[in-house]
Design goal:
- The protein is mostly beta strands.
- The chain has a domain of 63 residues.
- The chain is built from 1 helix and 5 strands; from the N terminus they run E-E-E-E-H-E.
- A 5-stranded antiparallel beta sheet has the order 4-3-2-1-5.
- 19% of the residues are buried.
- It holds the Pfam family DUF951.
- It comes from Lactobacillus xylocopicola.
C-alpha cells in the first residue's frame, strides 16, 4: 500500500476520487489520527481518518517548500499553518 510514502504538513497530494468541484488536488493542513485537507479547487476544508486517507491517497504532487504552490490562491504555507503547542502553561 502507501505506507512507505512520507507526506508532510503543507504538501499537495493527489487523491483517487475528485472533490465535487472536479479537483482532486488537496493540501495537507493537519497530521495526526485524523488528517485535515483543503481542496485546492474551491478551498473547502475536510477532515478524514488516517486509514481512509491512506486508502484514497494516490501520490504527492508538490512538497511544502516547492515554489509552484505559491501560484495557487488557496495554498497556505507551512509557516502560516497554526500548530498546537504541546508545552504546558506553567512551564
Amino acid at each position: 500500500m502507501n505506507r512507505d510514502i512520507v507526506y508532510g504538513l503543507a504538501d499537495t497530494v493527489l487523491m483517487k476520487k475528485p472533490h465535487a468541484c472536479k479537483t482532486n488536488n488537496w493540501e495537507v493542513l493537519r497530521l495526526g489520527a485524523d488528517i485535515r485537507l483543503k481542496c485546492m479547487g474551491c478551498g473547502r476544508i475536510v477532515m478524514m481518518p488516517r486509514a481512509k486517507f491512506t486508502h484514497n491517497f494516490k501520490k504527492i504532487l508538490t512538497k511544502a517548500d516547492d515554489p509552484v504552490n505559491g501560484k495557487n490562491e488557496f495554498y497556505v504555507g507551512k509557516e502560516n499553518i497554526v500548530q498546537a503547542s504541546l508545552k504546558r502553561a506553567n512551564e
